[in-house]
Amino acid sequence: MRIGFSVPQFGPFADPDRSAAMCTALEALGCHSLWVGDRLLSPLTPPDGYASGGPMPVRYGTHLDPLLALGLAASVTERVRLGSSTLNVLWQPPLVLARALTTLDLISRGRLDVGIGLGWMREEYQATGVPWQGRGARLEETLDVLDAVWCGDPVVHTGRLWTIPESTVLPKPRQGPRPPILLGGFTPPALERVGRRADGWLAASMPVPYLDGLWAVAVEAAERAGRDPAGLRRVFRVNPEVTTVEADSSEIHHRGTVRQICDHLRVMCGSATDEVLVDLQLTTDSPEEFLDLAAAFTAELTGP
Asked: pTM of this prediction?
């Protein structure tokens, strides 16, 4: 099992100097990866589709740009993989996005994992002027453009939304033929796309029967596409609510003691390539508390 943590970028952690120092400290703990999130705004009224049905956490209204935060993390680390979980890619043209991601892969010397999602908040789509309807088709063509830019020479693309005339687009990413692409989502169409097109799935800590049902969709899709499902990675995000006393067993996929949450994560991880992403930005309020809890999760997940 590989262990990752969130890049500090939200709420009290949305300070470049603080984030940089914490990224250095997290790498020193021995983690495998660091991951950014992507939020544009935090509506004052409960947004449509928010999981709890109530207001979003206030600290989501204060945030660093995910790609710039990754660049900052790349500049102060040497070893860890750097990813996005998830980057809402439909808010910018894919050619512009490809240029930024290529630059990040070069800055990090080939440590970039491109984690892509559609997002779930209509308000963010409205604010960026991107249609809510047709998101799946828009993502499919975005992936086509990324492949064309990263793998084509010359680059050319003709699609329903975007056209790139035969062109030179250099440099290419350091990782060949392109950085790994991991896709988020928790619906059968999303998992079908993971199996058919991606290098892995940006998942979440969840009850195991639910996980097994979703993952079976990706496995079947990979096999139909002539791909080996054993080559697909899985990254299980958890935004833990850490308690000092044991929680009910029905809650331990997101709430409980450090040991309870880690025990559940170990059950979910079925191969050496599976990874957990522990996001402590809603759990802690200071760098010291964040790093202490990160050390506790690392010790529990790597211990005997």
From this structure: 0.95
Prior bond of 86 cis (ω within 30°) = yes
How many other CB atoms are found less than 10 A from the CB of residue 269? 17
What CA–CA distance (Å, rounded) separates 246 from 255? 9
Q: The tokens 């609510």 sit on which residue?
A: 241
The reply to whether omega before 154 is within 30° of 0 (cis) is: yes
- What is the bridge-based pairing of β-strands 155-158 and 163-167? antiparallel
* CB within 8 Å of 277: residues ≥ 6 apart: 4, 5, 6, 33, 35, 85, 235, 236, 237, 238
Report the length, in residues, of the chain.
Answer: 304
The neighbouring-strand residues paired with 88 are 117
Cα distance between residue 198 and residue 213, in whole Å: 18
Strand intervals (E) in the chain: 2-6, 33-36, 81-84, 87-88, 112-117, 155-158, 163-167, 181-184, 200-204, 233-238, 241-242, 255-256, 275-278
Q: What's the CA dihedral at 219, 223, 227, 231 to 10 degrees? A: 30
pLDDT, tens digit (0-9, with 9 covering 90-100), for 41-96? 988 887 776 665 567 788 889 999 999 999 999 999 999 999 999 999 999 999 99
